[in-house]
Amino acid sequence: KSLLIKGHGQCIEHFQLWLRDRLGDCTFQEAYERSGRSLSVCVAPVNTHEPAKLLNHVTAPQVLVRSAVAASCAFPGLFPPQELLVKTPGGAVVPYARIIRRKTSYHWRDGSLGQDLPIRGLRELFNVNLVVASQANLLISSWLSAKHALSFELPGAGVLLDVAEAEVKHTVREVERILQSLPGFPKAALGWLRLLRQHWEGNVTVVRHNSLLWAPWEVLPAVTG
Known about the structure:
Helix content: 40-55%
């Protein structure tokens, strides 16, 4: 019912309270100073044509970690898009869009709609040369699991599957371009297409071994709530 009326299946307020109870108003800079570790969260804009942003203590030191995590979980159909929040020098918490001088999106969502694995940004900022990825998306993980299994069982199948995957991604890009030009077409539906054309794998990719046919039925309860 919520999916049909509001466009998303889950209530974000409970999740926001859960994040606030555990993370407080900690910024990326404060998290880095406390732990000595770099946390990066990728988010994609809703209202503008900006590229996806990789948020961390270098690129967005004053952004609240909890707001970035909430935005990164806002996948179309699951959670509504979220505002990024920043902490001012005086300690006040304000929307990110208010303090940026240039035009920027007021709402942000899952970074996989712009880049599923922000490998390029990580390499540029932190000189990353080996990426170990844990693919949590059930649909993508199921496909990668099936592809790896077939590649292991059938010599030469890996090359054919890689070519087929590249062709599918190209077709998805063309379909997305056509649908974007249609008046009244729901933008939320394009999110699923954008996910299908992303780069999904690192140098090492951990996937969940499950059935590609069963995966959609596992996703459905999370969306419909």
